[in-house]
From TrEMBL:
This is Spore maturation protein. It comes from Clostridium simiarum. Residues 42-152 form the Nucleoside transporter/FeoB GTPase Gate domain. The keyword Kinase does not apply. The chain crosses the membrane at residues 6-26, 38-58, 88-112, 133-153, 165-187. Coiled coil: none annotated. Signal peptide: none annotated. Keywords: Membrane, Transmembrane, Transmembrane helix. The lineage of its organism: Bacteria, Bacillati, Bacillota, Clostridia, Eubacteriales. InterPro entries: Gate_dom. It comes from the Bacteria.
Amino acid sequence: MINYIWFFMIFIGICMGLFSGKAEILSKAVIDSAGSTVELIIGLLGIMSLWCGIMKIAEKSGLTEKISKMLSPILKFLFKDAAKNEKALGAIVMNLTANIMGLSNAATPFGIKAMEEMQKLNKDKVRASNDMSLFLVLNAACVQLIPTTIISLRAVEGSSNPAVIIIPVIITTLTAAIVGVTCCKILERFF
C-alpha cells in the first residue's frame, strides 16, 4: 500500500511541475537532492562507524550485560507470559538494551526473535498477545541514553554541539515509554 502512496505523491509532483512550466526547476531539484543524499550518507558513514565501535566496546566491556541485569526484574513484572520463557525474556532484554544504547540496527534481530518466542506462547495465533503489544510499544518508545543516530545526523549537518540533545531525548523517550506502558496496562484489561 505504501508503494502506491509514494508513487501517487511522486506522480502528482511531477505532473504539477510539468503543467506549471517548471520542469527545469523540478529536474534540477531532483539532481541536487540526489547529490546531497549521497553526501549525507558518506558523512554519516564515518560517524556511525565511530558510534558503533563505541557501542561494541560497551558490549565487550559488559556494560550492556549490566543494563540487561538491571532491566530484567522490571521486565519480569511487566510481561506476564514472556517472563515465564527465558528465551523470550532474554530476547526482549537484549532488544531493549541495544535500543537504550542507541544500536537500533543491532536491536532488530533481537526484536524479531522476541516476537517469535512470544508468538509460541500466544494462545490466539491470529491476534497479538498483550505481551507482544506491550513489547511493540516499548520498542517504539524505548528510552535512549545515547541517541547515536540523531547525534550523527546533527554532526554531519554541521551542528556546533550535536550531543546537546541527549538530556531532552532521555526525558522525551522516558515519558513516551511510561505513557505507552501505562496505556497498554490499562487497555489490556478491556481487550
